[in-house]
C-alpha cells in the first residue's frame, strides 16, 4: 500500500510539472506575440496608390469627316459630313460661293468655311448641318484660309485682290460670329499657323515672301520675318517653341 501511494504521488507531481510547463510556454508565447505587436506599431507603412484614369474624351467628334465641294464658280458650295465608322452620308450643309478651306474648333463645336468667291465665312455645328450662319467680310477680302487652336476665336487669311493692297487677317468671335478685329499683314496671305499655347499666330505672306507674327492676346503685329521665295505653308511645333514654313 505504501508503494502504491508513493507512485500515485509521484505521478500527480509529474502531471503538475507538465501543466506548469505548458502554462509557462503559453505565457512566453503570449509575451512574444505582444512584443511583436508593439514592435510593429512603430513601423512606417507605405500606402499603395492605385491610379484611377479620368474618363476619356468623347470620341464621337472623331468619327466623322467633312468634305467641301465648290460646285462650280456660280453655284453655292456644300460641306458633306461623312460618318467614317459606316462610310455613310450624315448630312450636307449649304455654303457660299467658292469654298476653299475649313477649320473645326478644338471642342468640335462648330465648323468655319472660307468662301473665296463670296467674301464670307460659313459657320455651322457638325451636329446640325441644316442651320448655317454667314459672316460677311470686306468686299475685296477673298478669304483663302481658316485656322484656330482656340474655342473662342477663329482666324481668316484674306488675300485681297485689289493691286497694291496688303492682306489682312480677320479675327472672328465664335460666340457672336462677328469680326472682332482686323490685322494688316503682308501681301497675299495664304496660310496660318497658331501656336498650341494660343499666344501667337503666324501668317504666311506668299506675295511678299514673309511671315507675320501676331500677338493673339491684343491682336497686334509682333514682327514680320523674311523667308524664301513664295512661302506656301507653316506649322507650329507641339511645344509652341518653333514654327516652320515651307517655300
Strand content: 35-45%
Number of discrete helical segments? 1
Strand order of the largest sheet: 4-5-6-7
Helix/strand-derived category reads alpha+beta
CATH topology of the largest domain: Methylamine Dehydrogenase, Chain H
- CATH top level of the largest domain? Mainly Beta
**Number of individual domains:** 2
CATH homologous superfamily of the largest domain - what is it? Answer: YVTN repeat-like/Quinoprotein amine dehydrogenase
Task: Please give the alpha-carbon distance between the first and last residues.
Answer: 127 Å
| Tally of DSSP β-strands | 17
Q: What would the average pLDDT be, to the nearest integer? A: 83
Low-confidence stretches: 43-54
Biggest sheet descriptor = 4 strands, antiparallel
Order of helices and strands: HEEEEEEEEEEEEEEEEE
In the CATH hierarchy, what is the architecture of the largest domain at level 2?
7 Propeller
Shape: globular
From the alpha carbons, calculate the radius of gyration and give it in angstroms. Answer: 39 Å
Helix residue percentage: 10-25%
Summarize the structure.
The protein is α+β, with helices and mostly antiparallel strands and 247 residues long. The chain has one helix at 2-40; strands at 64-69, 76-83, 88-97, 99-104, 111-115, 120-125, 128-136, 143-147, 153-158, 168-173, 178-184, 189-194, 200-205, 210-215, 220-226, 233-236, 243-246.
